[in-house]
Amino acid sequence: MSKPVIEIKNLEKVYEGAVPVHAVNGINLTITEGEFTALKGPSGCGKTTLLNLLGGLDQPTSGTIEIGGVDITTLSENELIDFRLRNIGFVFQAYNLIPVLSAKENVSFIMLLQDRPKEEREARAQQLLEAVGLKGKEGQRPVQLSGGQQQRVAVARALASKPQFVLADEPTANLDSTSTANLLDIMEKLNKKERMTFVFATHDDRVIKKARRIISIEDGKVLSDE
Amino acid sequence: MIFKVAWRNIWRSKVRSFIVIGSIAVGIWAGLLIIGFSFGMNNERTASAIGTTTGHAQIHSEAFDLEPVSGAVLGDESAVYQLRSEVESLPFVAGTAQRTVLQGMINSVKSARAVRIMGVWPEDERAQTTLPMTLVEGDFFESAGRNRLVIGEKLANRLGLKLRSKVVLTFQDAEGTLSRASFRVSGIYKTLNATWDEFHLYVHHKDLEHTTGAPLVHEVLVRYNETVDTDEKTIELASALPEDLSVMSWKQVNPELGFADDMMAIMLVLVLGIIMMALLFGIINNMLMAILERRRELGMLMAVGMNKSKLFLMILLETLMLGFVGGPIGIVLGDLSTRIMMHIGVDLTSKKEGLAELGVQSIIYPEIVPEYYIIIAIMVVATALIAAILPALRALKLNPVEAIRGQ
Q: Among partner residues A85, A92, A161, which is closest to B300 by beta-carbon distance?
C-alpha cells in the first residue's frame, strides 16, 4: 500500500469581508504517493485556493495539512519557504520561467537555491530536460520557446528539487491541444516511471481524462472523489 | 547564478538601465570635474600666496605674536643669523628670508590708510619669494636711491599714487615712539591676492633703519623644498627651535587660505552628497519600476522556495551592479576630462577681476585628486546599497499568491 503524501483534516479557508467567503469548507483528503490526481470544478469553486493551501502559499483559517508527517500549518513563513523548496514542485498556468535564464538554467536555479553542487545541478537539469523532450533546447531562453515547450521546462523545474509531489494550477490553460497532449504524456510518464505524485487544479477535460483520481470541488467542499 | 541572474536582469530594460548608468556616470564625472577645478583654483591661490608673500612657515618671537609692536624682535643681528643657519640646516628647508614688520599709516596727498610695512632684504626676497616678479611698474630696489617704496597696485590706486609719487609713512621706531618718514614710490606690484596688495607695502630695511635707529628683524620666512605635508614639516621645524620662538604654518599666517581649504573640503563633500542624493532617487525609482514589472516572477521565486535573504541579495546585487557599471565609467570620464583640462586650462578671463580678488589667475588648471576617487567609489557603493533597501523591502513584502496572479 502506498504511503500518504498529503493528509488534510477539516481544512477551512474563509476570506473575511462584508460577506465572509468559505473558499475551502471543511475538506478532508489523503493523497498517496504516485497519485495522478485532478481537482476539478467550476471557476471560483475553491480548487486553486485548496492548491495554494497544499503548497503552503496560503494559510488556512482552520484545519491541518500534513505533508510527509509535517503539519505545514504550524510552520513559520521562513520555514514554509524552505519546506516548499525541498518538498513541493510547482507548475503555474503562466509558466513563470525566469526570462533572463536559459531552459537549463531555469531548471538548475531551483537546485542552486537548495545549495546542490554544480555538477549535480548540470546533470539533473540535462536529464530532466531530456525527459520532457527538450533535448537540444537547453540553451534557449523562454522567449525562444513555444508555450508548450515553456510549460515543459516548468515541469522539469518543478521536478528538479526532487519534491514529494507536484502541484499544477491549470497547467494546460494556455496551451493548444497538441502541446497539452504532449505535456500530459510527459507528466504521466514521469508519474509512472518515477512514481512522482501530481495534483492538478483544472477544468480542462483533457487533463481530467488522464487523471487516475478526480476530486470534484464545489463551494469549497468535496463533491465527489473518484 | 544569482550574480548571473542579477546581471542579466539589469539589461532587461536596456534603455532604463542605460539612463540610470548614464546618470551615475555623468554625476560622478561632474563631481570629479568640480573637485579638480576646486583643487586647481585653491592650490593655485595657496601656492601663489606662499610663493609671493607668506612662505611655508614664519618664525616670530612669542611677543610679536601677542602684539606685533616694533620692539618684539627675534633678536640682534647675530641671533637672527644663528637662527637662520639653524633653520637652513634642516633637510627639508630650501631657504629663509628675514623681514622687519611694522604696523603703520601711509599718507598720500589724496588719502591715508593703515598698512603693514615690510622692511625687506631685497636679495633675500628675490631668492625666497616671487614678489619681485609681480612688479607691474618700476623695480624692486634695484635702482639707486633712498627711501624707496614698493606698493601694491590696488593700494596705489586707492591713494592715487604713481611711480615717483611721494608718501609719508608713520610707524613705531625701536623705542616704540611714533616716527614719520617720507618715501617715494619706486615700484608697483600686483599679486594674485588683491587683499594682500591693499594692505602691504615694501621698503628697503636700510631705509627703515635710518628712522628706527637699528635693524629690526621681526620675522623669518621659511621656504620648504616640497609643498607636500607642510604641516608636518612645520611641526618638525618648531621642535628644532627654542621654545620662546613661535613657528606658524602658512595656514596660521594666512588663516583665510587654510579656512578656504577646509571649507572647500566640506563644500566638495556636500556637492558630492547632493549628486549622490540625486542618483539615489534615480536608482530607487529604477529599481521600484523593475520590481513592479517583475512582481509575477518574484512571486514565483518566493513560491518555489527562494528565501528572503537570497531575494534581498539578488535585488541588492542588481542595484550594486548599476553602480559598478556607472561608477567606473564616470571616474574614467572625469579623470580624462580633468587631465585634458589640466593641459589646456579653463579660461575665465571674463571673470578676471573677481578671480584676482580671490587670489587666483584667470586661467584655472584643474588637478587630479586621487583620494577623492576613493571617496567617490565608496559613496557610489553606499548610495547603491541604500538605494537597494526600499525596492528590496517592497519585493520581500510581496504575497506570492497575489504576485503570481499579477495582482
A: A92
Distance CA B164, CA B195 (A): 23
Claim to verify: residue B35 and residue B11 sit in the same structural domain: yes
Name which of A18, A157, A57 is nearest B405 in CA terms: A57
CA atoms within 13 A on the CB side of A25: 14
- Determine the residue of chain A that is closest to B300 in CA distance: A96
List per-residue pLDDT tens for chain B, 407 residues long.
778 888 888 888 888 889 889 988 998 899 888 888 888 888 888 888 888 888 999 999 999 988 888 888 998 889 999 999 999 999 999 999 999 999 999 999 888 999 999 999 999 999 999 999 889 999 999 888 889 999 999 999 999 999 999 999 998 877 778 888 999 999 999 987 788 899 999 999 999 888 877 788 999 999 998 776 788 899 999 999 988 899 999 888 888 777 877 888 888 888 888 988 988 998 898 889 888 888 888 888 888 888 888 889 999 898 889 888 998 999 999 999 999 988 888 888 777 777 766 667 778 788 888 888 888 888 888 998 898 899 999 888 888 888 887 66
Name the residue range of residue B186's domain: 57-226
| Cα–Cα dist B314/A159, whole Å | 24
Nearest-neighbour CA in chain B from A58: distance (Å): 7
Compute how many other C-beta atoms are within 10 angstroms of the C-beta atom of residue B325: 18
Enter the DSSP assignment of B94. Answer: E
In eight-state DSSP terms, residue B115 is E
Q: Which domain holds residue A186?
A: 4-225
- The reply to whether B104 and B201 lie within a common domain is yes
The values of phi and psi at residue A111, to 5°, are: -70, -30
Does residue B399 share a domain with residue B276? yes
Residue B246, domain member (yes or no): no
All three cell numbers of A81: 519557504
User: What total of structural domains would you count in chain B?
Assistant: 2
Q: Is residue B84 part of a domain?
A: yes
Residue B86 lies in a domain: yes
Grid cell 609692536 — which residue? B69
Look up residue A50 and give its three cell numbers: 485548496
> Do B165 and B69 share a structural domain?
yes
User: Is B245 within the bounds of a domain?
Assistant: no
Number of structural domains (chain A) is 1
Q: Which grid coordinates belong to B184?
A: 617715494
Specify the CATH number for the domain of residue A128: 3.40.50.300
Cross-chain residue pair B304–A112, CB shorter than 8 Å = no
Judgement on whether residues B31 and B123 belong to the same structural domain of the protein: no
The one-character DSSP state at A143 is G
ipTM: 0.86
Which of B296, B304, B321 is the best substitution to test chain A (most A C-beta atoms within 10 A)?
B304
> In whole angstroms, what is the distance from residue A160 CA to residue A88 CA?
10
Residues B264 and B214 in one domain: no
